Amino acid sequence: MALEYDLLNENVKKCQYAVRGELYLRASELQKEGKKIIFTNVGNPHALGQKPLTFPRQVVALCQAPFLLDDPNVGMLFPADAIARAKHYLSLTSGGLGAYSDSRGLPGVRKEVAEFIQRRDGYPSDPELIFLTDGASKGVMQILNCVIRGEGDGILVPVPQYPLYSATISLLGGSLVPYYLDESENWGLDVNNLRQSVAQARSQGISVRAMVIINPGNPTGQCLSEANLKEILRFCYNEKLVLLGDEVYQQNIYQDERPFISSKKVLMDMGLPFSKEVQLVAFHTVSKGYWGECGQRGGYFEMTNIPPKVVEEIYKVASIALSPNVSAQIFMGLMVSPPKPGDISYDQFARESKGILESLRRRAKIMTDGFNSCKNVVCNFTEGAMYSFPQIRLPTGALQAAKQAGKVPDVFYCLKLLEATGISTVPGSGFGQKEGVFHLRTTILPAEEEMPEIMDSFKKFNDEFMTQYDNGFGYSRM
Ligand code: DCS
């Protein structure tokens, strides 16, 4: 039998994805046993009670059930602008939502994405260089698949990082080249670290070919400054790397000092020779922002300075899967061209989206403040994205107890937290971290009204844990 464990592709066995790892499995078990679990392991807003935005669901509902458009009463259930948009999107398809689209996505939606990018950045964007995907994940996988030829190819990945990158690189048999974000500098990125990482990889015979940035960061929540992005792009130019800009959290910003600025805009602002030479692929999704439509699986990537022959090859590979989800493409179209002032649905849309973002901003603060009030816990402010990533200084007594239990120390801590409080988090080791330093990741997504209670229960658990395992022999390092 070919599908025997011993005969499996070794890359499949090597690949790890902590967001749905041991902690998640244990949480699911406890839930089956009837325990109340607060799932903060995945950035999945609707699963934690966020309501969908009304307008896009109205449009997609009509696209899914086009016979409603022929019903004389349709205007009583749906506003005229939703009806018009549904007709518009149906006209872009070749047979409605049940028909495959072009493998790059519907040309009309790709044009809307290009217009959005142009409005956002102030530079032209070409729909031919935009591919729609089933979530950003599929796009990242497609591009890494094209870059990685074998273990001699290295991809620079931030540590801590979102494990889509480490898992996909393992799966494709490439080499992950880590660069460390500096926790004491609010998870900033120091270009000197990048140079060291590349030099070290080269000394091991690895040719570094791409660099990933996650901006705003997952799990670290930092927003990169324009100056930092410039340094990164200059570095990619000097080292001839393609920059993979994961910008899925671009709407999730919770401070005013560093608004989101796209890698594409910074690259174009830099002018020649950079703007014509640095290769960039930037990713976006309908899963995040105030949309949170994770289950719809919609995303796109935009390519800059990628040669036409390469674009053709990427198109060919995308064609093997025939077509991205068509309903998700419509969500993407709606995300990049939401109702405008003066439209019938504008006020409601603005109210709903503003309400979600303002609440997320408050929750980011409640969470970070809550962590910082706990014994032996320090947490940088969540500037953006959907996560807090507190550092937990574990007493040596806890390190010993973890060893006895055969667990990595942060897994041990997170399991105890889960059993005591029902809060399901992801241990920091799942994202990579410096040796001997421990973290956990939680989303900032639980309902705002439940937040104080969750933080109280976390604090009670943590402070008791620290007392229980404090043996007077110090703590893990910072
Ligand atoms: N990039 C980053 C940085 C992400 O955090 C995620 C999802 C994705 C890409 C992929 O999203 P989609 O495929 O849905 O577009 N974040 C996961 C996480 O850490 N928690 O929830 C999902």
Helicity level, as a percent range? 40-55%
Q: How would you sum up the global shape?
A: globular
Q: Kindly report the spatial arrangement of strands forming the biggest sheet.
A: 2-8-7-6-5-3-4
The fraction of residues in strands falls at: 5-15%
Distance between the terminal alpha carbons, to the nearest Å? 49 Å
Mean pLDDT level: 95
Radius of gyration: 23 Å
Which consecutive residue ranges, at least 5 long each, have pLDDT under 50?
Answer: none
Q: What about the largest sheet?
A: 7 strands, mixed
**What is the structural class?**
alpha/beta
Q: Tally the beta strands.
A: 14
Keywords: Aminotransferase, Peroxisome, Pyridoxal phosphate, Transferase
GO molecular function: alanine-glyoxylate transaminase activity; glycine:2-oxoglutarate aminotransferase activity; L-alanine:2-oxoglutarate aminotransferase activity
Subcellular location: Peroxisome
Catalytic activity: glycine + 2-oxoglutarate = glyoxylate + L-glutamate; glyoxylate + L-alanine = glycine + pyruvate
Outline:
44% of the residues lie in helices and 12% in strands. The structure holds ligand DCS. Ligand DCS binds next to helix 7.
